[in-house]
């Protein structure tokens, strides 16, 4: 329990750091970015939007930095992330809450599948070293070096087309309205297959490699020799003795590399025009939509923190040693 | 974007390269200077990297055309004149690829150096000094570890107008040191209580000397593998930034090529030559760097080396599969076994 509370405190601290960072980044922009934006939009921005921009960029002459910081927090707790420029006057929070479920489902499910698949293959590759499984390594090395988005482009090029089963872009058929019915769900699944496959292929190799190396390291421990000497079946030794111990560093690795994976999957969404957070980020970048960009960064960071917390709980359940303390 | 492939964290130092076998006769103790290079994976990786470095230097000069120059052959497939075809403006893709190598390599190595220096300072200090300093520095690196790096880099660079390559490299370096710092801290912790470090301290060496001359040489492999890992990450990040159009499109790198290919519907025009070479160039560079990292891993921890030929024939004509860390056990069955099992044959002999 003490361990859990420690982790929770750490994540709260990290969330605070990320939010503070998010507060300061727009204040580092040299010059007057608001004026540049107002010129760019040529009168499309209302005076209220311009005011809120000045507050956002910290150019509000009436308030000092500390007051701005307090106001920023007040806004955050009210769920107010400002107004988007691209979809003016829609609040950023509304845009994100529309696109977040897409990303969570796509990235969440594929990451978990990829972790289990990669760990399983890694156990096999580490245990049966010197057999055909060694051939997996060069392939996985190559695949893990390929940028996610390029793999997506290649997948679109090779697998989609006018008569192909796989659609090349979007999250659902353009003729449908998002709803939980028998028309929409199959269409959404069909559209997510190719992005999911892309993420799976490029992320699975990392798990295979790290699990294999851990299996190799664990396999020469004394308790493995003892287990063999006791006459336990090879399978039992591999799964209950070697894999169980090799899994622990991989679970903590899972938590730590989530940030990397999320960064990569955002790009897959861009390539496939998938209606998730990554694609919104791309659109926000194109339009210099700072409020939307910052909101998305905040949401991504908080999601990763929550996922980390879940991985910590899994670690707690897997490793009895952490439970004993406190 | 990729998961750090190095498993060096789990390796106990002093078992691999660091443990120099002491030999009674100095004449016999022939030290293999280039043992690292004799590793096949590392050698392959280094050769490929050397080719990339060469093109980073001479690329812009040997490029057959000016990468930005427009021509009359629009979206042409590869031919003798344009080895990798042309773009929507008639620019030569091969020239763009060659000219872009310099920027990619520069950003990769510059960011790698920045991140490595930072991680050494923070990781080694945290591990060696300990106490409150360690807690603060560890918390700092954990925060940077958990915050998703790529979105952070995107947000920061998007606020910089027309960022130059060195600035992008600096941003990438400043945000991606945390993993290495963590690994280095763990290694330093295990090193600082060793006898040779205690001896150095007891003989009155200053802290900076203990760190510089006792600890750092023993951390070389960890630092090198961290550096290579950061270079991979930095290259991928830079290309990603260029691909989504955050950085200026005036300097060429492979991401810029992909940016234009995506923006000009290269897919719909079936112009595979436009985006395939750049992606392959990234993948091969990444593979080369990963191979170097495997080489370092295997150099430090010989257990990870590929086992090679594992099936052996005994004099009795049985096949045994040898595995590192396992004791092969022969049984009466012709299949290879590596573990003991109660043989049923034995019971049959007892029964009658």
Automatic annotation (TrEMBL), chain A:
Keywords: Membrane, Transmembrane, Transmembrane helix, Transport. It is found in: Cell membrane; Membrane. It comes from the Bacteria. It is a multi-pass membrane protein. This is ABC transporter permease. The chain crosses the membrane at residues 7-25, 102-124, 136-159, 188-209, 254-275, 295-318. Its main location: membrane. Belongs to the binding-protein-dependent transport system permease family. Residues 100-311 form the ABC transmembrane type-1 domain.
TrEMBL record, chain B:
It is found in: Cell membrane. This is ABC transporter permease. Residues 105-293 form the ABC transmembrane type-1 domain. Keywords: Cell membrane, Membrane, Transmembrane, Transmembrane helix, Transport. Belongs to the binding-protein-dependent transport system permease family. InterPro entries: BP-dependent_transpt_permease, MetI-like, MetI-like_sf, OppC_N. GO terms for cellular component: plasma membrane. Pfam families: BPD_transp_1 (PF00528), OppC_N (PF12911). It is a multi-pass membrane protein. Gene3D superfamilies: MetI-like. GO terms for molecular function: dipeptide transmembrane transporter activity. SUPFAM superfamilies: MetI-like. PROSITE patterns: ABC_TM1. Residues 329-352 are annotated as: Disordered. It comes from Actinoplanes aureus.
């Amino acid at each position: 329990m003490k361990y859990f509370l420690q982790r929770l405190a750490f994540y709260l601290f990290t969330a605070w750091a990320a939010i503070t960072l998010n507060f300061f980044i727009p204040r580092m922009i040299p010059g007057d970015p608001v004026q540049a934006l107002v010129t760019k939009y040529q009168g499309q921005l209302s005076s209220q939007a311009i005011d809120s921009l000045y507050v956002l960029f910290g150019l509000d002459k009436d308030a000092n930095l500390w007051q701005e910081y307090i106001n920023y927090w007040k806004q955050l707790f009210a769920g107010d992330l400002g107004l988007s420029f691209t979809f003016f006057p829609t609040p950023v929070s509304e845009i994100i809450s529309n696109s977040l479920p897409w990303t969570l489902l796509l990235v969440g499910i594929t990451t978990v599948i990829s972790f289990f698949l990669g760990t399983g293959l890694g156990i096999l590759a580490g245990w049966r070293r010197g057999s055909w499984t060694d051939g997996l390594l060069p392939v996985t090395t190559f695949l893990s070096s390929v940028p996610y988005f390029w793999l997506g482009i290649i997948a679109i090029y090779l697998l989609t087309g006018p008569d192909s089963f796989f659609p090349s872009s979007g999250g659902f058929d353009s003729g449908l309205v998002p709803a939980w019915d028998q028309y929409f769900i199959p269409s959404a699944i069909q559209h997510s297959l190719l992005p999911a496959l892309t993420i799976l292929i490029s992320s699975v190799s990392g798990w295979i490699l790290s699990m294999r190396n851990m299996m190799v390291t664990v396999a020469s421990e004394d308790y493995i020799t003892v287990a063999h000497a006791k006459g336990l079946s090879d399978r039992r030794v591999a799964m209950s003795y070697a894999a169980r111990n090799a899994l622990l560093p991989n679970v903590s690795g899972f938590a730590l590399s989530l940030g990397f994976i999320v960064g990569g999957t955002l790009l897959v969404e861009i390539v496939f025009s998938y209606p998730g957070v990554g694609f919104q980020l791309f659109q926000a970048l194109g339009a210099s939509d700072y409020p939307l960009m910052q909101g998305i960064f905040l949401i991504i960071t908080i999601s990763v923190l929550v996922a980390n917390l879940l991985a910590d709980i899994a670690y707690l359940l897997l490793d009895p040693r952490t439970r004993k303390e406190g | 974007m990729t998961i750090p492939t190095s498993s060096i964290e789990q390796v106990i130092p002093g078992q691999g390269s660091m443990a120099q076998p002491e030999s009674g006769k100095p004449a016999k103790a022939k030290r293999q200077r280039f043992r690292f290079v004799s590793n096949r994976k590392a050698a392959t990786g280094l050769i490929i990297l050397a080719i990339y470095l060469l093109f980073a230097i001479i690329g812009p000069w040997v490029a057959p055309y000016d990468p930005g120059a427009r021509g009359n052959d629009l979206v042409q497939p590869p031919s003798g004149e344009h080895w990798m075809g042309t773009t929507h403006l008639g620019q030569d893709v091969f020239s763009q690829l060659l000219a872009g190598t310099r920027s990619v390599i520069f950003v990769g190595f510059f960011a790698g150096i920045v991140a490595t220096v930072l991680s050494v300072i923070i990781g080694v200090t945290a591990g060696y000094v300990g106490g409150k300093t360690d807690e603060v520095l560890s918390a700092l690196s954990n925060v940077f570890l958990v915050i998703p790096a790529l979105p952070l880099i995107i947000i920061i660079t998007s606020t910089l107008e027309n960022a130059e390559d060195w600035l992008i490299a600096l941003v990438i370096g400043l945000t991606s040191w945390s993993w290495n710092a963590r690994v280095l801290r763990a290694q330093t912790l295990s090193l600082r209580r060793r006898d040779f470090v205690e001896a150095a301290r007891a003989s009155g060496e200053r802290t900076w000397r203990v760190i510089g001359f006792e600890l750092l040489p023993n951390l070389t492999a960890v630092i090198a593998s961290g550096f290579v890992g950061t270079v991979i990450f930095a290259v991928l990040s830079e290309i990603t930034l260029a691909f989504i159009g955050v950085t200026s499109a005036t300097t060429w790198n492979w991401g810029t090529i992909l940016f234009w290919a995506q923006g000009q519907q290269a897919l719909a025009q079936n112009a595979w030559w436009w985006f395939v070479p750049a992606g392959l160039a990234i993948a091969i560079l990444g593979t080369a760097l990963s191979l170097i990292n495997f080489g370092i891993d295997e150099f430090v921890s010989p257990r990870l080396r590929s086992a090679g030929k594992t099936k052996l024939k005994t004099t009795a004509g049985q096949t045994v599969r040898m595995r590192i860390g396992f004791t092969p056990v022969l049984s009466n069955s012709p299949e290879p076994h590596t573990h003991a099992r109660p043989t049923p044959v034995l019971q049959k002999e007892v029964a009658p």
